Amino acid sequence: AMKLQGFAKYLKSEKVTAIHTAVTNLNTFQFPMCLVELKDFLSMGQLVCHEAARATGQLRCFDRPEEVVDLSLLSGIVFISHQWAGFDHPDPEGEHYQAILVAIRGMSERGLKCGYIWVDYTSIPQANAFQQQAAINSLAVYASLCSALVSVAPNCKHADTGADLNVQTYCARGWCRLELLSFKTGTCKAEDDERAAYLCDGLSFKSIQESDVALEDDLVLHVLGGSFTCCSRCHPGGVQCDRQKTRDVLLGIYWRLLAMRRDGDMQYVIEADRILQLVQMEVEKYFPAYTWYRSAGHEEMQELFDGYLPLLHK
Q1: Are strands 77-82 and 148-152 parallel, antiparallel or unpaired?
Q2: What percent helix, strand, coil does the chain show, rounded to 5?
Q3: At what angle do helices 2-24 and 242-263 cross, to 10 degrees?
Q4: Enclosing H/E stretch for 119
Q5: What count of other Cβ atoms lies within 10 Å of the Cβ of residue 150?
Q6: What's the average model confidence in pLDDT over 111-126?
Q7: Which of 2, 206, 233, 304 has the most neighbouring CB atoms within 10 Å?
């Protein structure tokens, strides 16, 4: 019994450490925030991988969030959220890049600032798995600092599976939901209350409020109910599940919501309370204790949020 008590204490301390790390990561970059200036993005002609953009000096990298705050206010930073159209390249046919150009024109016509672009393939390391995970851990900070988010979801086909991709499949993606949730729970002070999320299907550009797409709080919050490529491919070679990669980001976002409800301006208090009430009604749906992991000839239950949320309330 003593051994079990000791083990339980150890597990609790491990969880407290994980929570502390997740909360600390909300105000720091584990990996620099890498942006592309609009003129450079336009000259690229396609989505360019992080390493190629770095080699040609087209990345503007920032080590601390406070360095980005003024840039976001003065010039505008647009967070591009999209569903990859290939396993190894997000945009083999260039359709997403063209849709981003439509979005940029739409922002310009509305008088919205669009000085810098954040897009995963260019802004997150692709070759180094450790750097990539560090950048993923900072996803909620990156999104929270951007002055606008554009969900880019043109009608196209997945290069490897042949599946149709569109606004509906975009909304079903776990990563896309996480990006939207990260942006939604951010507290960047854009001028004239223009901080908003937009949708571009390659033909039209409109705010998500104006669109008929059901990106409600409950859908955006249901990150782990979304689809992940690693799961549909049965985790080849026993790779880590993306659901595990999102855990610390979601823990940090949950803590941010608690802090916003406790200390925020009235607008943030109402918003945070609405989302937290959704969680309380269905904790297991949004923050499941465990998840199934399936790989070739192997199946197991892996821990996700078991015992974490009560610790966050302390």
Answers
A1: parallel
A2: 55, 15, 30
A3: 70
A4: strand 116-119
A5: 28
A6: 97
A7: 304
Q: By the 8 A CB rule, do 253 and 276 touch?
A: no
Element (H, E) at 27: none
Q: At what angle do helices 242-263 and 129-137 cross, to 10 degrees?
A: 30
Alpha helices in 25-173, H assignment, sequence order: 38-44, 50-55, 65-74, 95-109, 120-123, 129-137, 139-145, 167-172
Instruction: Identify the pLDDT of residue 192.
Output: 46
Residue matched to tokens 């900072």: 138
Higher model confidence: residue 3 or residue 94?
94
Q: Which two tokens stand for residue 176?
A: 């896309």
Q: What is the pLDDT of residues 5-56, one digit of tens each?
A: 554 554 567 788 887 777 777 789 999 999 999 999 999 999 999 999 999 9
Torsion sign across C-alpha atoms 263, 134, 119, 215:
negative
**pLDDT interval class at 4 (50, 70, 90):** very low
Classify burial at 45, counting beta carbons within 10 Å of its beta carbon; exposed 0-12, middle 13-18, buried 19 or more: exposed
Cα angle at 297 between 295 and 301, to 5 degrees? 55
CB-CB neighbours of 261 under 10 Å: 18
